């Protein structure tokens, strides 16, 4: 049994991302301990206005998100691509939660910080309105590179897989049903 945190990074109250996250969690919970977070349900200041120069107390929902990350062994992030990368509210949550002392620690005399979230794995489910090949090879696959190299690897989280769903715009209900079934299969495969 694995401890799995499923994060719906889409701030909209209803979305394909939310449905994919719910489908994944509904199947994974049959074999694993699963917790679920919808970024749209959280109320917090997204701007880290002073960077790391001034400590800002975390709102209870962000403290809870930190606890869930620490509890987890596998983190599933379901995110749409907005303007090439993640929604601002989710980026704000990362800015506020993945802080020094929580996800990484600067070490005197070293240029690479210590990774504090080692031992965890992740999985990315990405929705987009362009064809996946276009996004990956023409637009540069920015969301994947940002998640993998700048957030997950930096903190010690090893991304195992990334699955793309798109184009979402003008997709049929049958296509969305296929995507939901795929999310269920991914939730069943976690080991």
Automatic annotation (TrEMBL):
The source's domain of life comes to: Bacteria
Record keywords: Oxidoreductase included? yes
Keywords, comma-separated and alphabetical: Oxidoreductase
Positions of the Flavodoxin-like fold domain:
2-174
Asked if Lipid biosynthesis is a keyword of the record, the answer is: no
Instruction: Tell me the PANTHER family matching this sequence.
Output: NAD P H OXIDOREDUCTASE-RELATED, NAD(P)H DEHYDROGENASE [QUINONE] 1 ISOFORM 1
The record's family statement is: Belongs to the NAD(P)H dehydrogenase (quinone) family.
Would you tell me the protein name for this molecule? NADPH-quinone reductase (Modulator of drug activity B)
List the source organism: Pseudoalteromonas lipolytica
